[in-house]
Amino acid sequence: VAGGNPGDAHDIFGAAMACLHGELGSAGHGGGGWVLAYFSGLCSPRDVPRPLRPLPTYRLPRQLPGLLGALRGSPPAPRRCRQGRAGGLLHRLLEAGAGEGSPPPRPPGEAIDT
User: Fold this and answer.
1) CA-to-CA distance for 5 and 68, rounded, in angstroms?
2) Which of 54, 63, 76, 99: disulfide with 58, CB 3.0–4.6 Å?
3) Which pTM was predicted?
4) Is 80 exceeded by the pLDDT of residue 48?
């Protein structure tokens, strides 16, 4: 026991990391269904332990919609759609349209194949 205290927070963290180590290692870079969320007011990306950094990471509360999408299994928005509120709404509309069996609309200015 580090420091001689049975309730030492580092021992609890170490035990939790040991439990996750094998599963995270076999999951690869996709995360294997694991995601990480942190509150921006309490910590920063630098505080994320190195073994957890490959996981999809969400900064709360700003990225709560993305976390909720990940938890329900929705694919992440393309990078071009992540910019601002309008981009996020556009992504949701495109996603809903694709789910109805119709092809998604083309972005403005994209040539139509004939």
Assistant:
1) 38
2) 63
3) 0.51
4) yes
